[in-house]
């Protein structure tokens, strides 16, 4: 029998809809502001809950007057207040206003924020808009055209020529494209243009900084660094050495894997870059958003008024439309269930293998079948260097951490299988793959960095390869934090590519298994992807898309429109 639960803090906490953090956050605000209105308190806890789920704000207009299940298993439904009652309650609260002078902010579009995230959203929109409307460049057009002509033919596909020319002449450029579409090649040409321009004008060599959110993504760039290392975290206090009041010295900054960057980090990065520097942002709009709050890259790409600065690369130079991986990823992006099923079930492409998971016991069989071949070069490696060189050859990707199909269980299963396999000649030693989960600036290890643990008798040491191909060694006990990484989540795999990927999907519908997750997992594979799952679950995922509440697109549109109006007034 369906029961309706009131939108009230204590009641929803008792039903486990709010976590302890959500609940006590709202309680602390209630005490500080002597707030007793149940709608206001429940709204504050709800914003906290949504932030943990990746949303920047609570969109009140979208859910007012509706109902929602309290949990996935129970029959209780939350009945949300009607719009007028909800807005009136918030507007009459001392803890809520339309600016960051209060801990909570309600904007004119009925979106409810923590003031911190409202502030970062507005700062990011202003910073991007300032760059879009910054003074025109004085680059030599003839020089640009000459270099572009030497790298691209006149009929070159994919907007690559246009993207390069825009990046040379403007102060903010966004380039979106999947693996193999030439983003790395484009950045190479852009850098060549800036270096050539300085040389022909007798100017100093321009300082070009290349950054990415993770060490793995940064290692794929020429002289790449992580965003955190470039900003230089302060040792004994939060924040960074480089910030809006102390900008870094650079002429050009190229930001890769931008879909992984959350709103706070991107804001702090752009504020630390002077307006005189040219910013080129690269990413894949079809990929999963950042683990932290927001879907910043896609929000920026969706904003009206951004199109002159936005370039989509959709031709895959690596596969030229001939591989199963490319055709499968296109079917996913285009929500083409029939084409997806045709590729998976009929097995028309040798680089896409599908194994139907119809019984729970099969997961052990498939893991055993594929890892013995996939991880054999790694486990059989005679030296640490050889083992590190094999880390990108094969990887298991999962949708979840927990459960039978999650990384915790699959990692346990992998280690068990590999330890007892006699064919690898393991005698008194064993190598494990690990992934760092906490930034360690002293050691130069960052969240997402992958290395190995080498066990030999009583010694347990870890090894990591740096961007200059040197090997760092640490005792396992000296590392701040790491997880086993024979299997990692698809979220954690962003910014990486592997020769072969074994993607294990759950046997039931999950809000995590979305179109973006399928696309991201499949496109991590360079030569082959093996998918273990239920075809009906996979087809269902096409209709599930990650939608995160945010006001960034609208905020950016408003800033761009206001600047355009200001320019027209000055002209006329």
Strand arrangement within the widest β-sheet reads 10-9-11-12-8-13
**Bulk shape:** globular
Low-confidence stretches: none
Profile the largest sheet: 6 strands, parallel
Q: What is the typical, i.e. mean, pLDDT?
A: 90
According to DSSP, the number of beta strands is 23
Tally of individual helices:
23
Helix content: 25-40%
Q: Give the N-to-C terminal Cα separation.
A: 67 Å
Report on the structure:
This protein is an alpha/beta fold. A hairpin with a 4-residue loop joins strand 6 and strand 7. The longest helix has 20 residues. It is globular and about 70 Å long. Helix content is 40%, strand content 19%. The chain contains 23 helices and 23 strands.
């Amino acid at each position: 029998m369906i029961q309706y639960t009131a939108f009230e803090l204590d009641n929803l906490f008792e039903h486990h809809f709010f976590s302890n953090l959500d609940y006590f956050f709202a309680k602390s605000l209630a005490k500080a502001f002597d707030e007793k209105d149940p709608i206001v308190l429940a709204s504050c806890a709800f914003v906290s809950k949504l932030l943990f789920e990746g949303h920047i704000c609570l969109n009140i207009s979208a859910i007012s007057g509706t109902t929602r299940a309290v949990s996935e298993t129970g029959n209780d439904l939350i009945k949300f207040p009607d719009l007028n009652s909800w807005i009136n309650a918030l507007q009459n609260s001392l803890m809520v206003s339309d600016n960051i002078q209060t801990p909570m902010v309600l904007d004119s579009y009925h979106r409810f924020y923590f003031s911190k995230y409202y502030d970062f959203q507005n700062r990011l929109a202003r910073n991007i808009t300032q760059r879009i409307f910054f003074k025109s460049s004085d680059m030599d057009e003839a020089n640009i055209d000459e270099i572009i002509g030497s790298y691209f033919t006149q009929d070159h596909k994919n907007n690559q020529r246009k993207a390069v020319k825009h990046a040379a002449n403007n102060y903010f450029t966004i380039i979106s494209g999947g693996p193999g579409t030439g983003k790395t090649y484009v950045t190479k040409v852009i850098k060549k243009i800036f270096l050539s321009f300085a040389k022909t004008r007798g100017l100093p060599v321009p300082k070009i900084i290349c950054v990415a959110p993770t060490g793995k993504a940064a290692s794929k760039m020429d002289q790449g660094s992580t965003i955190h290392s470039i900003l230089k975290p302060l040792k004994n206090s939060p924040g960074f050495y480089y910030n809006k009041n102390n900008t870094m010295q650079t002429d050009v900054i190229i930001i890769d894997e931008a879909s992984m960057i959350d709103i706070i980090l991107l804001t702090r990065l752009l504020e630390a870059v002077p307006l005189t520097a040219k910013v080129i942002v690269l990413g894949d709009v079809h990929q999963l958003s950042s683990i932290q709050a927001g879907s910043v890259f896609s929000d920026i790409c969706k904003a009206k008024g951004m199109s002159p600065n936005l370039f989509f690369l959709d031709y895959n130079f690596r596969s030229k439309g001939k591989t199963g991986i490319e055709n499968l990823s296109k079917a996913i992006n285009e929500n083409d269930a029939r084409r997806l099923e045709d590729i998976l079930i009929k097995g028309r492409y040798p680089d896409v293998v599908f194994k139907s998971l119809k019984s729970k016991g099969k997961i052990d069989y498939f893991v055993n079948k594929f890892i013995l071949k996939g991880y054999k070069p790694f486990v059989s490696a005679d030296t640490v260097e050889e083992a590190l060189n094999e880390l990108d050859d094969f990887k298991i990707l999962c949708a979840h951490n927990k459960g039978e199909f999650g990384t915790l269980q699959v990692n346990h299963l992998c280690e068990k299988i590999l330890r007892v396999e006699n064919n690898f000649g393991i005698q008194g030693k064993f190598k494990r793959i690990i992934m760092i989960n906490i930034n360690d600036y002293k050691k130069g290890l960052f969240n997402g960095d992958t290395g190995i643990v080498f066990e030999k008798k009583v010694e347990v040491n870890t090894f990591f390869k740096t961007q200059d191909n040197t090997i760092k060694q640490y005792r396992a006990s000296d590392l701040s934090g790491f997880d086993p990484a024979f299997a990692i989540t698809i979220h954690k795999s962003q910014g990486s590519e592997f020769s072969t990927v074994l993607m294990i999907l759950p046997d039931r519908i999950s809000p995590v298994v979305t179109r973006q997750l399928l696309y991201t997992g499949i496109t991590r594979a360079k030569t082959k992807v093996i998918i273990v799952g239920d075809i009906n679950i996979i087809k269902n995922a096409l209709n599930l898309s990650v939608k995160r509440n945010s006001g960034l697109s609208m905020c950016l549109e408003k800033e761009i429109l206001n600047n355009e109006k200001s320019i027209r007034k000055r002209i006329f």
